[in-house]
Amino acid sequence: MRSLRPLRQPLLAMTVALLCSDSSAFSMSANAPQKAEARSPKLTLPESTDDAALKAMQAKHRPIAASFAPSEFNPHPALTNCHLQTISGVFLRKDPNCSYITEPGFGGISKVLKALSNIQPGEDECTFWDERQRITTNCGQDFYTVDIKYAGKRKTQYQSTDSKGTVVLIHGLESNSNSSLSTDMSQAYVKDGFDVVCINFRGCCGSPNDTLGGYHLGFTDDLRHFLKLMSELWGKDGFEKRPIYLSGFSLGANVVVKCLGELGDAALNLYNIHGAAVTGAPFDAERNVEFVDRPGFNRAIYSGNFLKTLKKRAQFQLDKHCEGDPLTPLFDYGGVMSAETIAEFDNAFIAKVYGFEDNIDYYRQTSCYYYLPGVAVPLFILNAGDDPFFDPEFFPIEESVEGGGDAPIKMERTKCGGHLGFMFHQPSDAEQKSERASSWMPLELARFLSHVHDQQNEVETVHS
């Protein structure tokens, strides 16, 4: 959501209009399309030893996922609009008077309005991370960076002395490790005793990458490369084989789930991945692109702003990698510059650069929905029912433990929350007594990973 930064100036006026409006006017369900028949792409099987091994690991981990009890997201009733939630999640997440509402009546709302009026243009300097590493990609021709936050005293690279394990975090489209959500999620994991490594996709660390392209909805290459690097460190220079957990939001959530589905039981057997927690998982991009590109508010505010940064990136790459030739055969430059929707951009750039037939083939080959049956470790997916980016009629609960699926997947869909928002939560009496290092959603994801960690430790203790 980093591309929404240019909206700081008009944000207050727009938000007041949202507050004064009937939220049903922005509902995505009134004209929702009928469910289309799912069209499965041609996928490779998970990297499991065999189907029986995958099923056995899934059966072992289903009780762990099933036993997690999600808490209730309880936003202030006057602050539930999906667009208000989405946009406030970008700009106001770190304001304790906006992540939580503790005053009754207009008192809490007045603090939100004050926070909105104090938003200033420009990027805030991020001093959250302890160190950064630049890593050469598997092809040897490009690089990505990872930012590290230690839960305690640094012991060796990527590990502090007494951490429970490492959470590998994947950010969303046109975001990076410095976004408010990246640092908020990381803070929640650190508070629970995990070291955190945030992977910045190629070209997202503040420096341009060295090859055409960078990343996309299903780009698991760099995540899998980093997991392999971590596994090669075990036993060297004091580096311990501690549990690895994955987390991500939006596009990053799709990458995490797809990666788990690709790996199957190899996630644990090869890379020691014990579980994952994601939010804003797209599931099926072919369905969702209609919503993010919908004329009106969505196209003007969301896809319109994404397109500005995506086109800027494509222009830079044309100049750097294609000698500025607008007739380059590597992608459809004219189609990119004339694109008015994300779908048109994906068709002109992503599909061409990465070898998909078109944007529909791209969506079908990369959407994480198709990879859910291959997940072998406990996974928590937290989405909002009013997410303006997604088809409200599609939530594949049948693939979860509640829906009778084989995979150890816990799914939760709140009534509201927007896209990655989950703001203005009214904490319960019990929540008010506990320390709140982060906003509600990151704490919920961290709570699941701690649940998985504790449950697996209990199982290991019983069998030892």
Keywords:
globular, 16 helices, alpha/beta, eight-stranded mixed β-sheet
Molecular structure report:
With 464 residues, the chain is of the alpha/beta class. It has 16 helices and ten strands. An eight-stranded mixed beta sheet has the order 1-2-6-5-7-8-9-10, with helices on both faces. It is globular. The model is unreliable at 1-38 (pLDDT under 50).
Summarize the structure.
The protein has helices at about 10-20, 50-65, 80-90, 95-100, 105-115, 180-190, 220-235, 250-265, 265-270, 285-290, 295-320, 335-340, 340-355, 360-365, 430-435, 440-464, and strands at about 130-135, 145-150, 155, 160, 165-170, 195-200, 245-250, 275-280, 380-385, 410-415. The chain is α/β, with parallel strands linked by helices and about 475 residues long. The chain has an eight-stranded mixed sheet, with helices on both faces. A two-stranded antiparallel ribbon has the order 3-4.
**Count, helices:** 16
Order of strands in the sheet with the most strands? Answer: 1-2-6-5-7-8-9-10
Distance between the termini: 46 Å
Sequence stretches where pLDDT stays below 50 over 5 or more residues: 1-38
Helix content: 25-40%
SSE-based structural type: alpha/beta
Using only C-alpha atoms, the radius of gyration works out to: 21 Å
Quick check: average pLDDT? Answer: 89
Name the beta content range.
5-15%
The arrangement of helices and strands along the chain is HHHHHEEEEEHEHEHHEHHHHHEEHH
The biggest sheet amounts to: 8 strands, mixed
Shape: globular
Number of E strands: 10
